[in-house]
Amino acid sequence: MSLPFTAKDHDVRIARDGWVYYVRGVKRSEPLDGGIGFGDGSLFGVAIWLLCGLAGRLLWRFQKSWKVGVVRFVDDDRVMPTSVVHEEKLASGVRPSARIAELVSAFESGSFDPTAS
User: Fold this and answer.
1) d(CA 11, CA 101)
2) 113: burial class by Cβ within 10 Å (0-12, 13-18, 19+)?
3) Which residues cross the membrane (predicted)?
4) Tens of pLDDT, residues 65-105
5) Which of 15, 21, 27, 62 has the most CB atoms around its CB within 10 Å?
């Protein structure tokens, strides 16, 4: 499966019942699902994409706050749209690892199954 983002060390991948879930932690300036929405291929779209990438890197470097969430994909070889099934912001300076572990536990108890969301 091709992902629209690069999974980080603290991200957790879980496959269940035809779905793939990622419990992720990203800086607040980053989208959980990896997209920025300027993929139309036009010169303007490419220029905006490059500027957003540069601005995003600068923001990431200086940003101290994180958000965590659960992103869901269809488990097959096609690139499918993602669905953010849960998202929350952490307090400034709080690392995402502990909250990711809590969300994985909630996932294992059935909280993020397609019939539950």
Assistant:
1) 10
2) middle
3) 41-60
4) 889 999 988 877 665 667 889 999 999 889 899 999 999 99
5) 21
